[in-house]
Design brief:
alpha/beta, 10-stranded mixed beta sheet, 6-stranded parallel beta sheet, about 50% helix, about 15% strand, binds ligand 26Q
Length: about 800
């Protein structure tokens, strides 16, 4: 480690100076928001030195660089994280106290950078943190959306989406780099021109263009002076200034280009695990990919005498799902049309450069674009994909002569559509899943044909999370406790945390651990009272499910079980019942009606249960509004129980599951995604596992599902809960309100399979699992032991481990070290 000394007096002077020059005010007059900007700029000063030094080192050592291409980077707030990684957090806290301010309140002024939906976007953010901390050179490449993930308001129990104006007060950490602007072309047609040597040149004509401007954000490594770059592209029109001077045709075009530039970076598509086949989405994808690829090629040529042939030795592109897959065709286009390479040379470089990560097996998330749309928007890129497809189909036929079924299933262009996953697999050197089970399902089911044809490309990289945000910053009490017991090596080497295991049976350690949990529950209870107006008892079991709202994640199973518990308590008031608080947080995609109705159901159950004095506060239900990275840090720290209850086989990995584990929550979950590997690490006795296995689910699916009516008819308790969905029990003014949810489980109307996500099938097992949770919690020492062992067993789930595996097995990057 290379910890930099913190100069407190200089930092204070810098803050005072910034407040004065930015706002002509002193500390007493300045608003919290103004102080935030002053502190952020003082912090940026410290970052800049390391950022420059990192660039110097890169120039000197010429290391291999990974370009992490992603439509989403769910960064959250930067100030606290930057201070943590500079190792200045405590120093700045003290400095600000001396200036009469509270760092926590200053941090609260910063809007979350919510340039992502959920798991995939947050994974990208954790990966950048780990890349810098491990000393690898990386560029995150993405889009500077003017509006990120919408803010969620709950009105009358319903979700309302409010635009996220995160740039309203400017972004103190960003650097706008107009000197690296790139032009991106859309539409028009392709002309073939023949030069004097008889060579064909493909020239795009009649296009619209947009100028892409990179805005750079620093990614600070922990205590090592390494600062990488998250480069998000903004769009500007080519000709906004003198519109009036154009003739009529030019004027029209200039206006259209201005609109295109404004639209393209306007807003993040708020769909998680669902493909929105919108033209603007494809424009966004090509916009940032074309700019990023052009810049990566330029940079390589600048440093290597203009010769592009060994590009792949110093650069690799990791494609975060298929969303950036047009990169393979764009790289081919640049190499063929701009660098003048032959097809085989260009193909060799491209296939040695690109690698693809799959994040889902949900069929509705698979990216497919109509040929008509694709070829109209990207005529030259489409030609190149046609040629990639033609050659790939020949290869399939060579390998499987006469097997037309293979061609039908594997072609990149088929049935009028461009299949982005097929393009990514055919054009890259690596395909990875994000948890062991997920990768096995890819190899044996979803991508079986591809695995059989090119098994060497397939590999697993189990996801991870950064302990620096989700323990060191989010849970300072526990972080200090861990450091007091085992030292602070865990901050950059989470495998060290297993040294806590010797304290699992130590009564003093158990008491301290549970006391910290209690204090974090008090902190969250205060937040809930302030933001939701609901009073919750920090002595009750905090049972938490926070994640995007999706049927496969089964928030419905959770709330149906709460309805069941409420019936039980009402029927048997004398029954022993440990008080429980069920906490939900989830955004639903704006157009996902059933998900939004589930939010209304949760809030309706909360209204009834929380206001029923007869149950003596045994049960509370809370829906936390606007679940996001910043409040997530508090929520994980305060959880006793972590709900990870997806239908087995559907959750590729999950990463929230790991954040709970790190903070000492006990998982109630299915054998899905990374839960499988978590249980392996912590031991079965330290989690509560229930429900169908992925094999069982897949088996049912291949045989037309199962019949939920049998369960409805034979299980009174379940039937009663389901009837409460349609008899107005939770919607007295509109008994039909939850009919769609009822129907989805029993299929009385729709043509879909009934209960696609096996909610009724797993219900009894889930209820029993909750009884096991309750029994375990009553055993105070037993619970404390489990909680400590969860924290102590999560070493594997650091994104540092994940990134090291990507480096060793896929990217082969060089380490740099930076001294100031
Ligand atoms: C695609 C096309 C058009 C519009 C939107 C999309 C789109 C956007 C986001 C499709 C999918 C996503 C997000 C997927 C996602 O977050 N997947 C999650 O990835 C995590 C990190 O690997 C896993 O832990 C989760 O299991 C997985 O659900």
């Amino acid at each position: 480690m290379n910890k930099r000394p913190f100069d407190k007096e200089m930092f204070k002077r810098s803050v005072l100076y910034n407040v004065k020059t930015l706002y002509r005010r002193n500390m007493e007059e300045a608003t919290q928001q103004q102080i935030f900007h002053a502190v952020a700029l003082a912090t940026k000063d410290a970052v800049i030195d390391a950022w420059l030094a990192t660039q110097e080192e890169i120039k000197k050592k010429d290391p291999k660089i990974v370009y992490y291409m992603s439509m989403e980077f769910l960064m959250g707030r930067a100030l606290g994280n930057n201070l943590i990684n500079l190792t200045f957090y405590d120093g700045v806290k003290e400095a600000l106290e001396e200036l009469g301010c509270d760092l926590n309140l200053i941090e609260d002024q910063e809007p979350d950078a919510a340039l992502g939906n959920g798991g995939l976007g947050r994974l990208a953010a954790c990966f950048l943190d780990s890349l810098s901390t491990l000393g690898y050179v990386a560029y995150g490449c993405g889009i500077r959306y003017h509006y990120g993930m919408f803010k969620q308001k709950i009105e009358d129990g319903y979700q309302i989406e409010v635009p996220d104006e995160w740039l309203q007060n400017g972004n103190p950490f960003e650097l706008r780099r107009t000197e690296y602007a790139k032009i991106v072309k859309f539409g028009g047609y392709v002309d073939v021109e023949v030069d004097e040597k008889g060579r064909q040149h493909f020239v795009q004509k009649g296009y619209q263009s947009v100028r892409a401007i990179p805005c750079d954000l620093p990614i600070v490594g922990y205590g090592n002076n390494v600062v990488n770059t998250l480069r998000i592209w903004d769009a500007e029109p080519m000709n906004s200034f003198h519109l009036a001077s154009f003739d009529k045709g030019e004027y029209q075009k200039a206006v259209e280009e201005e609109n295109l530039a404004k639209l393209i970076v306007e807003v993040l598509y708020p769909n998680d695990n669902h493909m929105a086949g919108k033209e603007l989405r494809l424009k966004q994808q090509y916009f940032f990919i074309s700019a990023s690829v052009q810049r990566a090629v330029d940079k390589y040529k600048e440093d290597h005498n203009g010769d592009i042939h060994k590009f792949y030795e110093k650069a690799t592109f990791q494609l975060n799902d298929t969303h950036p897959t047009v990169a393979v065709a764009e790289l081919m286009r640049v190499l063929l049309d701009e660098e003048g390479l032959e097809w085989d040379e260009a193909w060799d470089i491209t296939t040695k450069t690109c690698a693809y990560t799959n994040h889902t097996i949900m069929s509705e998330a698979l990216e497919k674009w109509p040929i008509e749309l694709f070829s109209r928007l990207l005529p030259r890129v489409y030609q190149i994909i046609e040629e990639i497809n033609r050659r790939f189909v020949l290869e399939i036929q060579r390998k499987y002569p006469g097997d037309y079924e293979k061609v039908r299933k594997m072609a990149i262009i088929y049935d009028g559509q461009v299949k982005m996953a097929h393009l990514a697999i055919a054009s890259g050197y690596s395909v990875n899943g994000v948890a062991r089970l997920h990768t096995e399902i890819l190899k044996n089911q979803e991508l079986k044909d591809f695995y059989q044809m090119m098994p060497e490309k397939f590999n697993n990289k189990t996801n991870g999370i950064t302990q620096r945000r989700f323990l060191l910053h989010g849970n300072p009490l526990l972080a200090n406790w861990v450091t007091d017991h085992i030292g602070d090596d865990w901050i950059t080497d989470l495998s060290q945390i297993s040294r806590l295991k010797i304290y699992a049976d130590d009564e003093k350690a158990q008491q301290e651990f549970m006391n910290i949990k209690y204090q974090n529950k008090v902190r969250l209870a205060k937040y809930i009272l302030e933001h939701n107006g609901v009073e919750v008892d920090p002595r009750s079991i905090f049972d938490v499910q926070v994640k995007r709202l999706h049927e496969y994640k089964r928030q419905l199973l959770n709330i149906l079980h709460v309805m069941y518990l409420y019936n039980q308590i009402k029927d048997h008031p004398e029954m022993p019942f440990y008080p429980r608080t069920f906490i939900f947080g989830a955004k639903a995609a704006a157009g996902y009606h059933r998900a939004k109705l589930t939010i209304k159901l949760i809030n309706s159950v909360a209204d009834v249960v929380n206001n029923d004095a007869s149950i003596n506060g045994k049960l509370k239900v809370v829906f936390i509004e606007d679940y996001r990275v910043s409040n997530a840090e508090w929520i994980f720290a305060a959880a006793d129980v972590s709900e990870q209850i997806s239908t087995a086989s559907k959750e590729a990995s999950g990463t929230g599951n790991m954040k709970f584990m790190l903070n000492g929550a006990i998982t109630i979950g299915t054998m899905d995604g990374a839960n499988v590997e978590m249980v392996e690490e912590m031991g079965e006795e330290n989690a509560v596992i229930f429900g169908l296995s992925s094999d069982e689910v897949i088996n049912y699916e291949q045989n037309g599902g199962y019949n939920p009516m049998e369960i409805f008819n034979s299980d009174q308790d379940i039937r009663r809960v389901l009837m409460q969905l349609i008899n107005g029990y939770y919607a007295p003014n509109d008994p039909e309100r939850f009919r769609d949810i009822y129907d989805s489980l029993l299929n009385t109307k729709s043509s879909d399979r009934a209960d696609t996500y096996f909610i009724l099938k797993d219900f009894r097992a889930y209820a029993q699992a909750h009884q096991r949770i309750e029994a375990a919690y009553r055993d105070e020492k037993g619970w404390a032991k489990k909680a400590i062992l969860n924290t102590a067993s999560c070493g594997k789930f650091s994104s540092d481990r994940t990134i090291q595996e990507y480096v060793d097995e896929i990217w082969h990057l060089d380490k740099i070290s930076v001294t100031l």
